[in-house]
Amino acid sequence: MNYIVLDLEWNQSSHPEGEIKEIPFEIIEIGAVKLNSKKEMISEFSELIHPCIYKEMHKITRKLIHLQMTELEKGDEFPRVAQRFLEWCGDDVIFCTWGPLDLTELQRNMAYYGMRPLAHAPLSFLDVQKLFSIAYEDRKSRRSLEYAIDFLHIEKDIPFHRAFSDAYYTAKVLAQLPEAVEKNVSFDLFHKPSTRKQEIHIVFDDYAKYISRKFADKQEAFKDREVCSTKCYYCHRNIKRKMRWFTPNGKHYYSISYCDKHGYMKGKIRIRKAAEDDSVYVVKTLKFIPEEEVQKIKELQERARMLRRQKRIRAKSS
């Protein structure tokens, strides 16, 4: 297996009314580095792309990457560049990016031009920015690429903020990360699960994650047994809920369950809207927590109840 470390630059409309909903960001440069299984650099890819949608450079894009439209006009159009890139990638690869956005925008641009998708379901990849946080920080913070380069004392031998250079530095960071962190894969959800078989069930070191297929609405989602289940990801059996699913804000839902062997488990459900239609899908995480955190969830539930009561009282008095 090879690693394809990818970075993209894209442009957007300078005026809100000029934005095309299906492709708000037009890719104008693809840069990538191919690493072998030993994380040695074995090949490079770098091409500018002739803009066909947004032909005026957005001021933020121009300032960030120092590219002029006259330079981009020398490039080839996206479908041909993307096809050459995919042929260069080859088979049996895993994509790697700094942050979660590049694969979504690559697939969005490909879909706009009617190209064959990278996958018809969620695409697993390595978010090197996240892996850096897992390896060296608190798992939650997200640092800049240049911060990671400085932290790891990597030589800065080419300028930042162009597609190839950022892919090059991301590959340098990846090569220095402990191999064990690579099991913390991410999933690009441009193509969401469409069937139960495509749904994502994955267990990491200290939590489990589930990504559902699409549902017509939130009510339909919560009727699904898999969405609402609280299964111990160590024992592989359903465990009794001590606290039913509740929401403090209408977007995030919480529950508390108890396993005789492993203790209290927090469930968290996030309802996400699918950008392409009016459907929703669910991202659920399950994690064992200490008893003091259980109390915090109970307090959150009580505050949610109080707010609901106050809302009902105001509705009656109005």
Strand proportion, as a percent range, falls in: 25-35%
Q: Can you tell me the overall shape?
A: globular
Along the chain, the helix and strand elements come as EEEHHHEHEHHHEEEHHEEEEH
**What composes the largest sheet?**
6 strands, mixed
Tell me roughly what share of residues is in helical segments: 25-40%
- Going by helix content, strand content and strand pairing, the class is alpha+beta
Low-confidence stretches: none
| Count of helix runs | 10
What is the topology?
Layout: E1 2-11, E2 26-35, E3 41-48, H1 59-65, H2 69-72, H3 78-89, E4 93-97, H4 102-112, E5 123-127, H5 128-136, H6 145-151, H7 163-176, E6 186-188, E7 200-203, E8 208-211, H8 218-222, H9 225-228, E9 240-246, E10 252-259, E11 263-273, E12 280-288, H10 291-317
Parallel strand pairs: 1-4, 4-5
Antiparallel strand pairs: 1-2, 2-3, 5-6, 7-8, 8-12, 9-10, 10-11, 11-12
Helix pairs in contact: 6-7
